[in-house]
Predict the structure.
Amino acid sequence: MAFVLPSLPYAFNALEPHIDARTMEIHHGKHHQAYVNNANNALAGTALAAADAATVCRSLRDVPADKMTVVRNNAGGHWNHSLFWEVMAPPSAGGGGRPGGALLAAIEQAFGSFDGAGGFKEKFAAAAAGRFGSGWAWLCVQPGGKVEICSTANQDNPLMKNAIGDAAGCGGAPILGLDVWEHAYYLHYQNRRPDYVSAWWNVVNWGKVGELYAKAK
Ligand code: MN
């Protein structure tokens, strides 16, 4: 079955003032739609035409060589953005704050603290700020439940590890992704990526990330 653009789970303006409505409208309706269309066109007629996006990302080595790059970029783009919309929520609907339960324990074990000096938020923001050019910062789960931060370029993601090696970052199961392409923030923040990252913490849906952690570990 061909990929379909998922509906946003909130209104375009629901994440304001942290992410503006116009950015969300273009990001979801134009950028994400283009990844869906381009991936569908490239995968049509291949053995992966009916696979879900995660399977395609994990199976890039099975994509015909002449379509590998376009599938990497666009099936990757589709999977990454589908996660991105899900792990955000308006502050009025649970966005922001802190994780709890097993996820908080895993974060504290891996990084010392959630939001203390040198802790998780600082390290994740540094991964986002330090990604040169376009890409993503990720929080991933390794087998056994250990969490790890990494970043990838373009629309690469950790699911692609067996096909693209170190370009896939840590290779764990991503449970939180932050888009640091300029299209994600430039209208409102221009070149101030760190300001976008600081504001983004206000809309992270930790309830959803906790669910993904429970499933992934
Ligand atoms: Mn994007």
